[in-house]
Amino acid sequence: MSALAPRATRSTALHAGAWWLWALGLAAAASRTTNPLLLGLLIGVAGYVVAARRTDAPWARSYGAFLKLGLLVIGIRLVFAFFLGSPIPGTHVLVTLPEVPLPEWARGVRIGGRVTAEGMLFAFYDGLKLGTLLICVGAANALASPARLLKSLPGALYEAGVAVVVAMTFAPNLVADVQRLRAARRLRGRPDRGFKALLQVGLPVLEGALERSVALAAAMDARGYGRTAQVPPAVRHTTTTLTLGGLLGVCAGTYGLLADTGAAYGLPVLLAGLAAALGGLWLGGRRSIRSRYRPDRWGVRAWLVSGSGIAVAALMIWANSADPAALHPPAVPLTAPVLPLWPAAGVLVGLLPAFVAPLPPRAEPYTKESPQ
Amino acid sequence: MIRFDQVSVTYGDAAEPAVQGIDLTVPEGELCLLVGPSGVGKSTVLNAVCGLVPHFTGGTLHGRVTVAGRDTRTHRPRELADVVGTVGQDPLAHFVTDTVEDELAYGMESLGLAPDVMRRRVEETLDLLGLADLRDRAITTLSGGQQQRVAIGSVLTTHPKVLVLDEPTSALDPAAAEEVLAVLQRLVHDLGTTVLLAEHRLERVVQYADQVILLPAPGAPPITGAPADIMAVSPVHPPVVALGRLAEWSPLPLSVRDARRRASSLRERLVGVEPGGMGPEAAAGDGDSAGTVGSDAASGAGTGTADGGGARKRLGRWRRRDARTGTGTGADARSAPAPVPLPVTTGGPPAAEAVGLSVRRGRIDALHRVDLAVRAGETIALMGRNGAGKSTLLGTLVGMHEPAAGSVRVGGAAPHRTGPRTLLRHVGLVPQEPRDLLYADTVAAECAAADHDADAAPGTCRDLVTRLLPDVADGTHPRDLSEGQRLALALAVVLTARPPLLLLDEPTRGLDYAAKGRLVQLLRGLAAEGHAIVLATHDVELAAELAHRVVILADGEIVADGPTAEVVVSSPAFAPQVAKVLAPLPWLTVPQVAQALEATA
Question: How many structural domains is chain A composed of?
Fold first, then answer.
């Protein structure tokens, strides 16, 4: 392996699962800390990798939307803390709102009242944690093609995957339809902005979407979608039994694990259930005659990318047990958070994909006439 | 390869069968063209081949359809997927995946082919269709012609014996259509694929066909034969055939090349004759016939659908027409051979004017320093390949896009800063998909809404609809109208506000020759009344018949702007068939030639 990352082509492309493991690793790390400096570092790491390795594909542009969503979450958390008060005791009163008197049955709920700097800071830390989680998920979304991830599903889940892919390609079409029809309202001399305009194009948009789905269903049928192989009845019945039994086992096992009493049998039942369900899926895949065209390969680079994410998570969990105070700076009393050096170094491991993942080709700009 | 035995199809609760008495055979390795006016059931026949009729659409199919020996009654579409490849009218509705390479592999994956076979076939197909550079591109970022080629490629990879295509070139610019047709040629010649295709734009495809199946009228049995024989009697035919019929050439030429080889005597006759409608003396004669537009559109005499079935071979159709006009059945506006002459006075301000106009859409300069003035009474055809900026220019004229630089004025106002209700009185646009303009569930409600929107007297819009579409009842749902009728309804809605500037985006997509003929008469009438008209179109024949001026856009810039005859005659892509046949003489349309011949006879 040469030191430089290769250009991404179909054969060198990173497995979509690797990106998701990496991003979930970062998210898991984010969930273990409320230190705003560490969280900021995590956001920075995710953002740098996205900037370095994302493509020009439509899903890659969703990163901005996730960033905004993260900011929105922080905003909402702050607004709630401002108006509904905070359980955090504090001495630095920022402002005192008039408190709405509530009836007896609503005790414990407070509207208005004192707003303290400690309460707001705590809410900000909390919101930032949630926001970071979202941004990590957004990074995976921007880096990994959702369609290619679904292609890695086992054969029996293939149809569910197709449904998701079709739905995902429909969403942009729907948006384009809404834009086109709103523009068309202008041609009728009606206002093309505002909520009412949006409402009135609703029906034609839905009609169009329905027609498109019917056309797509016809095209898929004509292209052999849903061709099945003959499977002996015994295999079919075994499949059903395994799948259903396995799912039941998973439910029972999870309950056992979470409940206080059943910890002893929980884990084995969960594992047995999982095994049975996977067996059912594998058997079910025999009914489908589909083959796969150039599936993504899990190579060295995929190991490195996913490994870096898991390492970040593992280091953060370790740091959390070793020095919980550094990862959770207190809101009371008000103190400036400090950046703990070793956990920060651990987070930086997450930058590895920006150097080892294949470099996406710079897509040339394209021109397209109005959406058709 | 394909056999229909006494097939008739009745949909759901329809009283009459959509098609009946279909009896035909398409031998292996032929390119077979299915022609006929709108609404005769071409799509039904095509979908019966791949089994979508009746398995997917419902309805009852009597008789028997076999494809490569498989009966479609016992084989569902998915079980025919390895012998029949189908591409519908809209390639975008056909795509299941998001990138070119995956799309090519999709059908093979469904059939369960081995990975190494799939890989080899994808590479072969990428080369065959010239898609290798696009293999990793997202499908939505491709141009129309590229999408159509991907759609064809996606059904080719399963190596079907039969390829069924519904209007593969209708939405494409001339160059992209050539691209697609070249691919079809190659499939038929090199791979022995049987191709069955329906197409309205016969001028593009008829010379490639080995066999033509004509569905002359709804419910009538098909006529099958060699292309030249069928074209001699067909109610739908390309201009080169019309010219051949007019000049009584035998055998009838189907391609420009054939026609040119026979045209030397015709060219000699036409030397020194000024094409009608361009010289001043012809202009004087044309004014009145163009003025009677509405009546002829109403009578349907100019449609050419009703009178073709008579199978009077070798009878010049245009001569019949002239005879009828002579006997006083009414002015045939189609005999007006060329655009309505321009009013000479140009004292007033232009209907629309763009100066140094640039428009950005996203990161792309959709228009770059465009200068254009449209005078009252003038018809301009806007041409250029898909994505050249035609729709953007029209959109900017109605204020959908804000100029990034330069200025645009329509009737003295800046469209993007004018409220929709005011703008309505200055400019009207019929979009590519006329359905976008229609919201109500009956024609009457649509008309009432249009009157209200335009502050017009109640009944204004309905009168216009009656003029354009005499047979449409108040209670009809706009969705149930044919493409041509829907276009006419949208046009009526737009015209209710009487805008001095009328814009049409790709108005002839999906229209047959009859509907196109009616549209041409209608627009000429409007031009004669002083409306300025700008149409964005790929249809060179339409531009030749209607436009005073042709403006060609490329990459958002104007690369040619001048009188129709000058611009199109010199261009290989945009010249109409008559111009190609009679070059270097500046004749554009068959009616022009017909009138000249009549005058010199």
Answer: 1
